[in-house]
């Protein structure tokens, strides 16, 4: 068997193992985001949203926040999946199974990222299905929608991986989502258009990478965006490249993994 | 991918390997050793001697500071993936996901080595069966007993059918029956051609299983020879004799020191060259009937303690000289 074929088998094994993990603990991986987002739809979309009326482009507030909430669940679940799965493997020393194997570092990274992206996508689909109980939605640009979801999930999977590599205790993988990810998500245009903000808040908001993901996705679904969609993709691809390089370097140096 | 290695290459060559940890601890001080293909090799040493660091470097979990190790001619430093395909590792600590099933743990391990799932499933069944774990194959690994978890790690290490199997204290905390069954399995693997490197604190295991031995202490090899040659250097042995009755006065014999342990037990320390017949004859003449007899300590244990103590005295001596 060639090296490429062996790596493909290894990659499939890792992805399969990650998916089995997601399904095995479905009450922790799939149900909580569905419940949380249902509450968002009821409270922000239905109860408060009905008093707001249309927000931009003639869309109701509910229609406006659905893409943002879907992207928010994709981001947080991709991040949470990889950080807890990889740190769990480190904590239990099961990561050594992979480190002593012939698998190259890129296969380990790709396997974990793919697993996290799968969880992000499954949760995204679930949340989208729930949203359909509250409002009508038609995807305007399917390709842009799918690409933005894929890139958003990949970016936060990579970020979660970096977090897990550095983490020494379980608290360390909760710190980043609590103090960085959640504030950035809420300030990333999920619930409002950044055009509603005055300066300098509008300029500051444009430094938030989540803004580009949410708006690229919103453009794909509704056809409206606070930022130029081309720029949004440039930013997202830039983040994927930069974070991939960082993650691979960490694996190569064995930070937190090899002594 | 089938590994490419020279047929004539030793199973393992450790070449001037050094490891200094970031906290300044010098775990390996330039050690070198060679293990021949098909050998059953004991790597012994007290706790903290550097055994696990050496195994860590061989399995690429620890980065060496300098030097290299070659597995069947393949450099661990320069051709890591190719070298890892040749190694199977049974670590000291349990290191699998305890929420997974033994069958999945084995099949996934094979997958990491690029072994297709169908072949992996067949091997998992084979090795779990041989290690008497097949009936537990679909249970969560955390429900297995300590001995079963150790056997599962051996089964897992066999999934890539390694040329070199490294066992780092695989029987720690395992009862005697399971230990024996594990050694039966590993001896069979060795007889079939797999080179085995074993670290253990049960020295009778090393004595009965291994053909060659290296003793490591303070990051340096203090002995590297064949088991036979090492045991031949043992000049004194101590036997424990269970006796039916004991007189007040013990007989005296040349080159034998007799000590009373209690009313029914004697210790006889004697040169290995001394014959046992004269000892029994003298005891019999003095009305001491021996009902059973055993070695006070395992022979290798005796040598091991002496070598390590000698090494420490040397170290202390040099330390004093340097300080002076």
Structure, described:
- The complex is a heterodimer of chains A (259) and B (324).
- Chain A is an all-alpha fold.
- Chain A has 11 helices and 2 strands.
- Helix content of chain A is 76%, strand content 2%.
- Chain A has a two-stranded antiparallel ribbon with strand order 1-2.
- In chain B, α6 links the parallel β7 (164-168) and β8 (195-199).
- In chain B, the strands form 3 sheets. A 6-stranded mixed beta sheet of chain B has the order 6-7-8-3-9-10, sandwiched between helices. In chain B, strands 2-1-4-5 form a 4-stranded antiparallel beta sheet.
- Chain B has helices at 51-58, 80-85, 102-112, 117-130, 146-157, 176-191, 203-209, 227-232, 276-285, 299-323, and strands at 12-20, 26-35, 40-44, 66-71, 74-75, 87-90, 164-168, 195-199, 212-217, 220-226, 236-243, 256-262, 265-271, 290-295.
- In chain B, α3 packs across α4 and α3 (102-112) packs parallel to α5.
- In chain B, 35% of the residues lie in helices and 27% in strands.
- The chains are: A mainly alpha (259), B alpha/beta (324).
**Any low-confidence stretches of chain B, pLDDT <50, length ≥5?**
319-324
What's the helical proportion of residues of chain A? Answer: over 70%
Largest sheet features of chain B: 6 strands, mixed
Alpha plus pi helix count of chain A: 11
Shape verdict of chain A = elongated
Distance between the termini of chain B: 59 Å
Chain oligomer state? heterodimer
Helix content of chain B: 25-40%
Number of helices of chain B: 10
Strand order of the largest sheet of chain B: 6-7-8-3-9-10
Largest interface: A-B, 32 and 36 residues
Total beta strands of chain B: 14
């Amino acid at each position: 068997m060639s090296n490429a074929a062996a790596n493909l088998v290894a990659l499939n094994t890792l992805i399969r193992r990650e998916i089995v993990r997601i399904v095995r603990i479905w009450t922790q991986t799939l149900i909580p985001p569905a419940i949380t987002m249902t509450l968002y739809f009821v409270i922000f979309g239905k109860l408060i949203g009905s008093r707001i009326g249309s927000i931009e482009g003639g869309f109701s507030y509910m229609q406006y926040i659905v893409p943002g909430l879907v992207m928010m669940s994709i981001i947080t679940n991709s991040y949470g999946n990889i950080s807890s799965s990889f740190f769990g493997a480190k904590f239990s020393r099961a990561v050594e199974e992979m480190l002593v194997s012939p698998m190259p570092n890129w296969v380990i990274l790709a396997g974990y990222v793919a697993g996290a992206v799968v969880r992000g996508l499954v949760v995204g689909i679930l949340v989208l299905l729930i949203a359909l109980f509250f409002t009508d939605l038609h995807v305007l640009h399917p390709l842009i929608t799918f690409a933005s979801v894929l890139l958003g999930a990949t970016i936060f999977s990579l970020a979660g991986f970096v977090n897990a590599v550095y983490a020494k205790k379980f608290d360390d993988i909760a710190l980043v989502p609590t103090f960085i990810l959640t504030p950035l998500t809420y300030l990333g245009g999920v619930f409002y258009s950044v055009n509603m903000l005055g300066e300098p808040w509008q300029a500051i908001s444009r430094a938030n990478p989540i803004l580009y993901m949410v708006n690229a996705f919103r453009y794909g679904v509704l056809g409206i965006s606070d930022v130029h969609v081309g720029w949004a993709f440039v930013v997202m691809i830039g983040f994927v490249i930069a974070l991939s390089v960082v993650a691979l370097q960490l694996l190569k140096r064995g930070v937190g993994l090899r002594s | 991918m089938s590994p490419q290695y020279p047929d004539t290459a030793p199973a393992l060559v450790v070449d001037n390997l050094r490891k200094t940890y970031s906290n300044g601890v010098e775990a390996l001080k330039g050690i070198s050793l060679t293990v021949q293909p098909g050998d059953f090799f004991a790597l012994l040493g007290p706790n903290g001697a550097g055994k696990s660091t050496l195994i860590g470097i061989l399995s690429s979990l620890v980065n060496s500071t300098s030097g290299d190790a070659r597995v069947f001619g393949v450099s661990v430093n320069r051709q890591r993936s190719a070298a890892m395909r040749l190694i199977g590792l049974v670590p000291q600590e349990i290191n699998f996901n305890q929420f997974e099933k033994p069958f999945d743990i084995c099949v996934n391990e094979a997958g990491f080595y690029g072994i297709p799932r169908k072949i992996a499933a067949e091997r998992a069944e084979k090795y779990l069966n041989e290690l008497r774990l097949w009936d537990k194959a679909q249970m969560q690994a955390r429900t297995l007993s300590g001995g079963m978890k150790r056997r599962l790690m051996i089964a897992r290490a066999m999934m890539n059918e390694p040329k070199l199997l490294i066992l780092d204290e695989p029987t720690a905390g395992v009862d005697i029956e399971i230990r024996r069954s594990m050694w039966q399995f590993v001896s069979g693997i060795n007889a079939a051609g797999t080179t085995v490197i074993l670290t253990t604190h049960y020295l009778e295991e090393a004595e009965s299983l291994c053909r060659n031995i290296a003793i490591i202490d303070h990051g340096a090899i203090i002995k590297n020879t064949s088991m036979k040659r090492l045991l031949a250097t043992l000049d004194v042995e101590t036997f424990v004799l269970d006796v039916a009755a004991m007189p007040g006065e013990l007989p005296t014999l040349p080159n034998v020191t007799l000590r009373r342990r209690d009313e029914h037990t004697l210790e006889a320390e004697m040169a290995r060259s001394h014959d046992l017949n004269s000892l029994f004859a003298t005891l019999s003449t003095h009305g001491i009937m021996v009902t059973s007899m055993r070695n006070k300590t395992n022979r290798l244990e005796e040598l091991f303690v002496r070598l390590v103590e000698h090494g420490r005295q040397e170290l202390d001596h040099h330390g004093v000289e340097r300080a002076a």
